[in-house]
Amino acid sequence: MVGFVPTIHVFLSNAQVVDARHRAEHDAAEHWTRTMLEIRNLVVKIADEDKQILNGLNLTVNDGEVAAIMGPNGSGKSTLSYVIAGKEDYEVLDGEILLNGENVLEMEADQRAAAGIFLAFQYPLEIPGVATMTFLKAAMNAQRKARGEDELLTPDFIKAVNSAADKLGIAKDMLRRPLNVGFSGGEKKRMEILQMALLSPSMCILDETDSGLDIDALRIVAEGVNALRAKNRSFLVITHYQRLLDHIVPDTVHVMSNGRIVKTGGKELALELEKSGYASYGEAA
Amino acid sequence: MAIVTPLKTAAEQQLVQQYADSKAELPGGPAVRKLREDAFAGFEAKGLPHRRLESWRYTDLRTLLREARPLADGVAVTAAVKARLDELKLEGLRLVLVDGVFAPELSTLNAIPEGVSVQSLAEALVSAREDLTRILAGPSVGNDDMGLALNTALMRDGVFVAIADGVELEQPIVIVSLASGEEERAVFHRSVVLAGQGAKGSIIEVSEAAGTAAQQINGAIVFETADESEIQHVRLVTRQQGATVEVQSLLATVGAHAKFDSFALVANAGTVRQQHFIRFAGEHSEIGLRGVNLINKTQHSDVTLIVDHEVPHGISRELFKTIAGGESTGVFQGKVIVRPHAQKTDGGMKSNALLLNDGATMFNKPELEIFADDVVCGHGATVAQIDGEQLFYLMARGLPRPQAEALVLQAFAGEAVEFVADENVRELVMAEVESWLKAREAASEVSTV
Ligand SMILES: Nc1ncnc2c1ncn2[C@@H]1O[C@H](COP(=O)(O)OP(=O)(O)O)[C@@H](O)[C@H]1O
Ligand SMILES: [Mg+2]
């Protein structure tokens, strides 16, 4: 089971910290700027192939930090996000992933979610036959159960969903459809952010959330993400383009190439990359 | 004199003896008697169906029935039977068979709607109806089936329901067939539903065991639905003993401009062979055959169907969903026949199975026999595992694996269940599916493929 279960309850996009008791206890023992996520020398291959994708990756994300990862296609960004979230198709050959100091590699994906990890998928899955509302409720209640809390009352649940959906411009009829089925690319991405808002994770990973979004949708989604920024919530924003980072302004920017972080800097690094491209980082022009 | 081929197995010999001993007291006038004799002669020539017959390839009744159990011949109203009837949530006219024998005292005969007549099959068999043997015979495509032939020879009782022209049922007619299950018995029952012109309604069949002794059940239901009728048939084979062997035949002859739908759920049963023999007798009709099979342990569920497009402009749809865990076996054999003059036929057949682990097996055999040239027919059969990507997505949102699997499986089954038109019945079916999945979730069973 999960050792450290954060009991930070954030009320939707208001990011109000209702109970930071556990975190406070943790903080007392550590340095002021705590590390949320620490990845040490991560080496990963595809489970049933001889194909190594992450080649000794190191990365640190602090509490409240918004870290961007930029990199050419095929550099391993999605793989990194899957491995953090607990997908099984990969084999970790070496290294550690620590969330709040605890190694998550032994945890199943659902336990990692309960521990506060949330992955907004690059390609959200369509699940025919599963009503979106049924799924949202099941997800929220599963995490409450893992934290030892009671199930949500239906009226509270509906209120929470409606309020979050409004903010993201998600139409009610989308919520009535089967999960992601027949949604446009942009609708799927909004649905990911809706789930993120409802589940109040502490470590949010956004994998190419900007792809498939037009500029208006991008702004809405970015506002949704920005509203969730909080002292005790960190973000790993994965993107190929600089555009998203105009709207979600990162604290740090990491360049990924060939399964490693090869350069780290401030937000100006993103602008630099926009100009020079990834050519010097291994992508053919 | 006909030369009788010596039948090989103990069960076959016992059946011969049973038929000889009981044929004098089995109900029916001379025409029915002849029907029985002919059917049994066929059985004596061919024996129990076995794997070398194409249509019984995956369900070898000769091996499964090592011994023929004594014929059930009376109503055993046990406390368990009463308790089960009390629990049953289905509303509507309730017609109860116990061990294949109609039990009027357990049925709600005071609730027979206007325009509906109900008799026991035993009564109907001795009536002077001229069309009786034609009705009982059903579509010709079922005629050489020995499972059905045994039913014809040995059918003891059941119900005979007629819905008059233009009658629209507000509530379903529920035929509950309970095995008292105090002792191991063989049960042969048959029911008939005649739907008049423009008649509409639902017929629900429930086949369950109240007791614990394994049964040999051979049931049949015959539909003859007239022009413009809309009839829904739903069958629930649930709560049977694992060692029970059950053969259920569905025969339907559907008139013109009519709709006939059948949905069958098999869950928590033993060995179940369902066979559907369906015939389009009139043009511009729609027939839908669907079902969900939930099997586990060493359970076995076989759906074998023949849809006979004998006339032009018929639409047929088949959709079967099988979820197989443990060491269970699922079978789907579907044959759609389009006769030479049955132009403009539109047929679509699908069987999808999810295997939950390596021990489970699915045999899919969809077939089209098309003799007309202006038709649209297709079929698809899939055998897969639970989609790992979908599972990961749900787990990444915090659903533990068993719950994530249950959600995916429920959705998979739901695609067929949603065709059950009556809302109450649909909910009951879905509740059965959910409880099967819950039991699996509670046992923390997860797929291992
Ligand atoms: N499951 C997989 N099987 C085979 N190859 C994979 C798999 N996942 C990723 N890869 C390969 O690993 C490399 C990195 O992929 P990915 O992590 O998707 O990169 P990015 O997200 O940066 O574009 C690519 O070459 C990709 O084809
Ligand atoms: Mg990617």
UniProtKB/TrEMBL annotation, chain A:
GO terms for molecular function: ATP binding; ATP hydrolysis activity. InterPro entries: AAA+_ATPase, ABC_transporter-like_ATP-bd, ABC_transporter-like_CS, FeS-cluster_ATPase_SufC, P-loop_NTPase. Keywords: ATP-binding, Nucleotide-binding. The keyword Hydrolase does not apply. Pfam families: ABC_tran. Residues 37-283 form the ABC transporter domain. The keyword Transmembrane does not apply. NCBIfam families: sufC. Belongs to the ABC transporter superfamily. Ycf16 family. This is Fe-S cluster assembly ATP-binding protein. The lineage of its organism: Bacteria, Pseudomonadati, Pseudomonadota, Alphaproteobacteria, Hyphomicrobiales.
TrEMBL record, chain B:
SUPFAM superfamilies: Stabilizer of iron transporter SufD. Signal peptide: none annotated. Residues 182-412 form the SUF system FeS cluster assembly SufBD core domain. GO terms for biological process: iron-sulfur cluster assembly. Residues 11-174 form the SUF system FeS cluster assembly SufBD N-terminal domain. It holds the Pfam family SufBD_N. InterPro entries: Fe-S_cluster_assembly_SufBD, SUF_FeS_clus_asmbl_SufBD_core, SUF_FeS_clus_asmbl_SufBD_sf, SUF_FeS_clus_asmbl_SufD, SufBD_N. Belongs to the iron-sulfur cluster assembly SufBD family. This is Fe-S cluster assembly protein SufD. It comes from Bosea thiooxidans.
